[in-house]
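Sequence only, no structure available. Ideas?
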Amino acid sequence: MHDCLLFYTKSETGNLFNTLTGPQSPSSLKRWKGAMQKVTFMPDGTRNPTRESGISLGVAMNDVWEIPIIAPVSKERLGYPTQKPVALLERIIAASSNEGDVVLDPFCGCGTAVHAAEKLKRQWIGIDVTHLAISLIEKRMKDAFPAVTFTVEGTPKDLASAYDLALRDKYQFQWWAVSMVDALPYGGRKKGADGGIDGLIYFNDHDQASGKMVTHRAIVSVKGGLNPDTAMVETLAATIAREKAPIGILIMNAKSTREMERRAAAVGIYRAGVDEAFPKLQILTLADLFQGKRPRIPNVDRAAFRRAAREATALQPSLL
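Reply:
I predicted one. Tokens follow.
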């Protein structure tokens, strides 16, 4: 399997293409090991180069790059269907830019290009149409570069922009709302019937029968309508029962009514461990989320979230 990469420039002048080098072949290393004087002939015919001129930076790469795909069980894989290896984007960016240059990826998906750009000390701009991708990139960059600083444009920052998103695109609204409570989107980027489940939050608790630690699922349901309805609570309660889920989270655009709160409380309590109690059905409004309120869930399992490996440095000065 192979792909063809095409190199385009805006003009015929001012183009940049850095020659990339790879390691010497094992046979070359074996032949020249310990014989620096044989590596380079001096102008006068002697074999006595300086150390600087005698050290090879490697072999110039040809136009066939062998880069392994990301294995299904690789720690690099983040679960995004079209994810590319970081090594590939590092090579492309290293060849076509210098440190401090700005790299633009207008279809950045899970953020491999901006990850590679940050690692290579480039400035970067990433663009994607889905809030699911943006939330994934935010998490990826913060995991890989804990000190990185960047701004995110186009995601809801207040109730008005959240309401607007809910009216324009219910799926984008669902993905954004799910990311606000650190849940995993149910079914990835697929649209369509979801059985009343928009996201999942995994958490750990002791099983009373076996005494062992087991993993449970909290169900997240998102409702973007402006009119509160007790049917929203009843539907989630039925989903909790059907899925045998200990906890369900209802995220609402509108403010809940007293009757909705009463019916949610009637669903019962989930007891974690010995002395902790959590409502089985919890209602959160967008106003709650913007005020920093989050679901009450015990021992959230962060291992369920695929994390990008931490990188050594992070440099992203302001572009504006």
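The chain has ten helices and eleven strands.
Hope that gets you unstuck.
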